[in-house]
Amino acid sequence: MSRFVFAADRPVDYKRRGDVLFFVSVILLWGLGLFTLYVCSGRTAQRLFGNRLYFLNRQLIWSAIALAAMVVFALLPIRVIRKALPVVVIGTLLLCILTLVPGIGGRYNGAPRWISIPFLGTFQPSEFAKFAVVLFLANLFDKQAREGNGEQQEFVYPLAGLLCFVGIIILQKDLSTAFFIFVLGTSLFVVAGDRLVWLIPIIILGLALFAFVIFIESYRIERLLAFFKPDEYKLTYGYQQYMACRAITAGGFWGNGMGAGMDDVYRIPEVQSDYIFAGWANVMGLIGVVAYMAVLVLFAVRGYKISFTCENRFASLASFGCVTCILAQSLVNIAVVCGAIPTTGIPLPFFSSGGTSLLMTLCMCGFAMNASHCESDEEEEMNVYLENNDIESFNGVVVENE
User: Fold this and answer.
1) Residue 398: enclosing H or E segment and its boundaries?
2) Over the chain, what is the mean pLDDT?
3) Distance from CA of residue 279 to its chain's centroid?
4) How far apart are CA 76 and CA 62, in angstroms?
5) 182 with 206: CB under 8 angstroms?
6) Pick from 163, 91, 92: nearest CA to 125
7) Which of the two residues, 129 and 344, has the higher pLDDT score?
8) What is the largest CA-CA distance in the chain?
C-alpha cells in the first residue's frame, strides 16, 4: 500500500544546466595538450622506443579512461560521491604507502613514487592525493559547519588528515608535490572560513620543515644554486631550464611551426614531461602563448563562477579546490619553464605526458561540472530523508510506501 501526500510547500524538482563554457575550455585544453605532445615528443619516443607515436598513443589510451571518469564524476549525484569518500581517501593513502614497499613501488632517479600497472606502465599515487585531499577537506568542513563543532575540533581534524598525506609524500622524496598539497589544503582552510590565527603558526612551522627537508638533500641545494646562478649551472643542474628558455626565445612572435625549427625543443631532456610548455611556445610563438593563457583564464573564470554560485557547500568547496589545483599547477609549471621560480616536479595539466596526471585532472574537471548543476544543500537533505524513509516524490506529490 502507498499513502499519497500533497506537499505544496516543497519546490518542484528540476535539472540545472551545466556550464557549457567551462566544458569547452576543458576540451580545448585537452586537445591542445594532445597536439603539443604529438609535435614535441616524436624524436624522443623514436630514440627510446623506436616509435614516434609512443607517448601520444599512451596518452590517448589514458585519455579514453580519463574522459570516461570525467563523465562519471560529472553525472554521479553528489551524495553518492560523498558516500564513497572513505574508500577513496583510505585507498589513496594505502596506494601512497605502497610506493614505499620494495618490489611494489617503482623508483625513478632514486625516488619511490610509482606503482606499475600491466599494459599501462606506471602511475603516481601522489596525483590521486591532490584530488583526495580536496574532497576530504571539503567534506569535513561541510560536516563541521552543519554540526556546529567547536573551533579547535574544526581545525585539528582537517589538519591531521592534510599532514598525513603531506608526510607520506615527503617520504616518497616528492617535496614539490607535498608542498603543493600543503598550500592547496591551506587555501581550503581559508575559503572554508577557518580563523587565520590557527593557520599562521602552522604555516610558519610548515615552511620551516620544508626548508629543512630541502637542505638535507644535496641535489635540492644544487637546484636552488642553479636558479640563482643560471650561467654557472646551465650545463648541469640548470640545463633543462636553460634549453627551455632558448626554445621559448627561438619561437619569437609567430612561432617556428612543426619541422626543422624545433632543434632547441629536441635538446630539452624529457621535453614531453614537465617542460612541454617550452615546446608549445617554440612551435606557436607568443601568439600561441597568449591563446593558451586566454583558454586558461576562461577555464578559471567559469570554474570559480561554478564554485561561488553553487548552493551545495561541499560541492562548492571541492570545486574551488579542483579549479585552484589545476590553475595553480599550470601557473607554477609555466613559471618554472620560464625560469621565474626554481625547478619543481609539477607537471602541466592537460599537456605533460603522464596518465595519472591526466586522469586526475579530468576527474577534477568532471566534479566541477557536477557542481554546476548539482542539487542544493536543502534538496540533498530532502532526498536523503526520502531515501532513508523509503519515500518517493513526483513533482510535489510525496508517495510514502507502507
Assistant:
1) strand 397-401
2) 84
3) 22
4) 21
5) yes
6) 92
7) 129
8) 84
